[in-house]
Design brief:
The protein is an all-alpha fold. Helix content is 63%, strand content 3%. The chain is built from eight helices and two strands. The chain has a two-stranded antiparallel ribbon. The model has no long low-confidence stretch (mean pLDDT 85).
Length: 155
C-alpha cells in the first residue's frame, strides 16, 4: 500500500519516498508575452516550453504567427497590410476571427493607427500628469492652488 501526501510519503515497509516536485506552469498572460517576444529575449526554460507548445499544437503556432504579424504591422507602416492581415486571420482556424471582425468594423480608424506616423502619446502623457497632480491634491485646496501646482510641475 502506498501513501503519498507529499510530506509523509510512506510505504508498508516504512521506507520514505521523496516528495513530488511541483510541476512548473505558466499563466496565459505570460504565455502571450512569450509568444510575442523576439528571439533571444526569453529565459532558456521559457523558450524550451514555447518551442514545445509550438511543435505540439498547430493552432498555437498559427495564432503565434498571426499575432506577431499583427505586431509587425505597426512597425512597417505599409499601406494595405492591415487588410491582408484581416483576410488571413478570417481564413485561419485560430481564435483571432472575432478580433479581426472587430477591427474590420472600425477599419478606417485602425488602418490610420497602423499606417500613420503621428502619435497622440505626448497629449496622453500630459493628461496623465495632470490627473496625477489632481489626484494628489484632492480635497486640499481650490482651483488656484491646483493651477499653481500644474504650472510648477510643468518644467
Amino acid at each position: 500500500m502506498l501513501i503519498n501526501d507529499g510530506h509523509n510519503a510512506k510505504t508498508r515497509e516504512k521506507n520514505l519516498l521523496p516528495a513530488l516536485k511541483p510541476a512548473k506552469s505558466w499563466s496565459t498572460s505570460k504565455l502571450a508575452f512569450m509568444a510575442l517576444a523576439k528571439g533571444g529575449e526569453l529565459k532558456e526554460e521559457d523558450q524550451n516550453y514555447l518551442d514545445f507548445l509550438l511543435k505540439k499544437s498547430p493552432e498555437i503556432k498559427e495564432l503565434t504567427i498571426l499575432a506577431n504579424e499583427f505586431k509587425e504591422l505597426f512597425s512597417t507602416k505599409k499601406e494595405g497590410s492591415l487588410k491582408e492581415w484581416i483576410e488571413k486571420a478570417m481564413l485561419s482556424e485560430s481564435g483571432l476571427k472575432g478580433f479581426a471582425k472587430g477591427i474590420n468594423s472600425d477599419f478606417d480608424a485602425v488602418d490610420q493607427a497602423v499606417t500613420s506616423t503621428i502619435s497622440n502619446g505626448q497629449v496622453e502623457g500630459q493628461v496623465n500628469r495632470l490627473k496625477t497632480i489632481k489626484r494628489n491634491m484632492y480635497g486640499r485646496a481650490g482651483y488656484h492652488l491646483l493651477r499653481k501646482m500644474v504650472l510648477a510641475n510643468s518644467g
